[in-house]
Amino acid sequence: MNGFLKNKDLLAGLMFIVIGVVFFVGAYNYQMGTAARMGPGYFPRILGGIMAALGVIIAGIGLKNQAQWAATAGIGWTWTPVVLVTLAVLLFGFALPSLGMIAAIIVLIALSGYAAHDKVYRELAMIAVIMCLFCAAVFIWGLRLQMKLFPWS
Questions:
Q1: Are 42 and 32 in contact (CB under 8 A)?
Q2: Coil, strand or helix at 33
Q3: Which residues pair with 38 in a beta bridge?
Q4: Counting beta carbons within 10 angstroms of the beta carbon of residue 35, is it exposed (0 to 12), middle (13 to 18) or buried (19 or more)?
Q5: For the chain, what is the mean pLDDT?
Q6: What SS3 class is residue 153?
Q7: DSSP string covering 56-119
């Protein structure tokens, strides 16, 4: 398996950074308040800042481990997988409202699977089918969230 995809620290760190920044920016319009008298924006901003800071630390550890892995594997380290996985997550977010959940998941898995050095297309297809079924069962049918399953729905 690809060393980049084995490096969960880097991916987790990037996710923490993105989620932390989204919460911090999302709570920007709410009143902050003080620690003694918290406003509605206090908790999301503090939590977002802490998550982003932890994400930077975790991603730094992941980058250090990634560089060590690449040096021992003799393949060299590139930014291509980092950029492709980040782009895949961004495209998922933009494609979800317009294309629906199934197409967005397929785009996410196809693009992030392209970042792997050793691509096994059968495994990627199985992951896509399982994720589509699982997400539809949990979010659409289980939680009854109002989102499109297909572009025409």
A1: yes
A2: strand
A3: 33
A4: exposed
A5: 82
A6: coil
A7: HHHHHHHHHHHHHHHHHHTS---SHHHHHHHHHHHHHHHHHHHH-HHHHHHHHHHHHHHT-SS-
Q: How far is CA 129 from the centre of its chain?
A: 19
Percentage of residues of the chain with pLDDT beyond 90 = 13
Residue 19 confidence (pLDDT) above 50: yes
Residue at 34: amino acid letter: T
CA 126 to each of CA 36, 38, 149: distance values in angstroms, whole numbers, following the listed order:
51, 47, 19
Tell which residue, 51, 48, 56, 62, has the closest CA to residue 11.
62
The residues, any chain, with a CB within 8 Å of residue 122's CB and separated by 6 or more, are none
Contact 56, 13 (CB under 8 A): yes
Is this model's pTM higher than 0.85 or not? no
Task: Give the three-state DSSP class for 72.
Answer: helix
Length of the chain: 153
Would you say residue 130 has pLDDT above 90? yes
